[in-house]
Amino acid sequence: MALNKMIPIDEAVARVESGMTLALGGFLSQGVPLTLIRALATRPVHDLAIWSNDGGYGDDGVVELVKAGMVRELHCCHVGYTPAVGRAVEAGDLELEWVPQGNLIEMLRCGGAGLGGFLTPVGVGTAVEEGHEKVTVDGRVYLWEKAVRADVAFVRAHAGDLVGNLCFRGTARNYNTTVATCADYVIAEVEHAYSVGELDPEKVHAPGVFVDAVVRADVSYCGVRR
Prior knowledge:
CATH superfamily: Glutaconate Coenzyme A-transferase
Number of strands: 11
Largest sheet: 8 strands, mixed
Radius of gyration: 17 Å
Structural class: alpha/beta
Helix content: 10-25%
């Protein structure tokens, strides 16, 4: 494990290349890695497949990448707060897949845990089942949901140390702990950075073994529409 994973943000987002799959932590305005998203939006990247809870909140979050024409596919649960995402879908510029929230987080968790996927009754008999394999167990029909593993993941933490141990605060924890496990390269933006040993190990929610790079978060984004 590297003794210091803190790197410049430009170097961090340079890991994202066109055509990659990107997983994002956050829930609407809570715990969203806006510093990384906005740094990525300045790069000449396109055809991204994004897995996220939502399309963002207002003009913040995933919608910023969509408006920049960088996203080919968006797999999420909700885009009701981002009209620009809806317009991109209607224009044929974005492929949108609706995924039930519980299914989405479990797909990411399975990807992080090294599992192939899981069976769920959620979505049976609805549009969600289209394209899914059905399995009957003890007379009940389930959908087979394949695990998701991303090329790169962005997460945001309240605090982190130089080897990537992360602490989240309140509802900003949401998807971040799971997303921090499900990618080949995980980048964490942290609001407060500490030396190794300064964080209380009892309060670490995501251990540094999962995190490849740490950048300083722009704290002016902490209160966006909260």
